[in-house]
């Protein structure tokens, strides 16, 4: 009888073991995540710290775009990122302030001058962040660097080559804050880069996306929310109200200009004051006035007023603003 009871107990335990799911041991990768990733967050990287983004997918890059935002004050050269795909298949960007070196494989180009595009510059001056984008395509080998919406000269680099491997992106040798790092396997359009520079991400990265990145960190690195900066980017990636209003106003002014042009009215650029520096009460007596003007054509100019009070009293505003260009 006892043997039959033992056999029954064993049979029940056996059936339960078939129904129960097998236990798995989770990966021990430190500070690693899938979704929701790093949206609305930033890494504060201190001396000796590093951040790594990884992917298990094999990629083949005949073109790419890398974009990120950073805050840093160190005057010496820093390495903003290094993307390794194995062997000589690597991409890195290093430099400081406005002089940067882009390296692909065993070749490199340096960039030190940046030129305004047709997009209004005030879209790129609202953040504490500096926006960087790098583009490259294998066919012509043309590489280009974008900084805060301004573009560098296009330079030939690593022409005809294709980068193949499993991507591993490292932020090391950098001190400051970094956020919104995306990597695409194609060259973003000028409009998409302008949108990124203005604070939004039209399409997340295809090789690495900040929104779904698997990451790990070592050394003195702190993961924080963007909201600690008063002018930080909103987590939903919408333009803040002030920028949205400026964008809507600019669109309306352009629409009015086109309508007036069709009616035969002369086209001219008018300016509105965007930034004022100086004491208006003491203008022309103690302090000078500096105005940054934003025009209806999307152009900006800086005007120095040292006789504002005299010209204003005389009603000669055209002499103050220099008339229309």
From TrEMBL:
Calcium found in the keyword field: yes
Occurrences of domain PLAT (ranges): 269-325
Protein's UniProt keywords contain Signal: yes
Signal peptide: 1-20
GO molecular function: metal ion binding
Keywords: Calcium, Metal-binding, Signal
Pfam family, one: PLAT
Ranges where the Pentraxin (PTX) domain occurs: 36-229
Database matches in PANTHER family: C-REACTIVE PROTEIN-RELATED (PTHR45869), LAMG-LIKE JELLYROLL FOLD DOMAIN-CONTAINING PROTEIN (PTHR45869:SF8)
Name the record gives this protein: Pentraxin
Origin species: Albula glossodonta
């Amino acid at each position: 009888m006892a043997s039959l009871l033992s056999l029954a107990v064993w049979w029940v335990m056996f059936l339960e073991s078939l129904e129960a799911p097998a236990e798995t041991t989770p990966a021990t990768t430190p500070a690693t995540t899938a979704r929701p990733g790093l949206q609305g967050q930033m890494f504060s990287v201190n001396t000796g710290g590093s951040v790594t983004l990884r992917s298990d997918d094999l990629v083949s890059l005949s073109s790419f775009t890398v974009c990120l935002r950073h805050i840093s004050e160190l005057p010496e050269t820093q390495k903003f990122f290094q993307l390794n795909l194995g062997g000589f298949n690597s991409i890195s960007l290093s430099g400081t302030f406005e002089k940067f070196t882009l390296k692909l494989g065993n070749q490199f180009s340096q960039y030190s001058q940046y030129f305004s595009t047709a997009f209004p510059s005030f879209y790129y001056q609202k953040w504490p962040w500096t926006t960087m984008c790098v583009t490259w395509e294998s066919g012509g080998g043309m590489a280009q660097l974008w900084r805060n919406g301004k573009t560098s000269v296009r330079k030939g680099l690593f022409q005809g080559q294709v980068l193949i491997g499993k991507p591993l992106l490292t932020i090391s040798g950098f001190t400051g804050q970094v956020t919104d790092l995306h990597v695409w396997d194609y060259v973003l359009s000028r409009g998409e880069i302008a949108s990124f520079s203005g604070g939004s991400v039209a399409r997340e990265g295809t090789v690495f996306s900040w929104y779904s990145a698997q990451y790990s960190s070592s050394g003195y690195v702190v993961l924080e929310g963007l909201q600690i900066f008063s002018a930080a980017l909103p987590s939903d990636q919408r333009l803040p109200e002030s920028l949205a209003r400026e964008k809507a106003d600019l669109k309306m002014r352009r629409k009015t200009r086109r309508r007036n042009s069709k009616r035969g009215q002369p086209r001219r650029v008018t300016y509105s004051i965007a930034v004022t520096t100086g004491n208006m009460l003491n203008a022309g007596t103690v302090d000078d006035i500096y105005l940054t003007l934003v025009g209806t054509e999307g152009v900006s100019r800086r005007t120095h007023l040292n006789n504002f009070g005299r010209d204003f009293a005389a009603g000669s505003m055209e002499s103050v603003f220099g008339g229309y260009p």
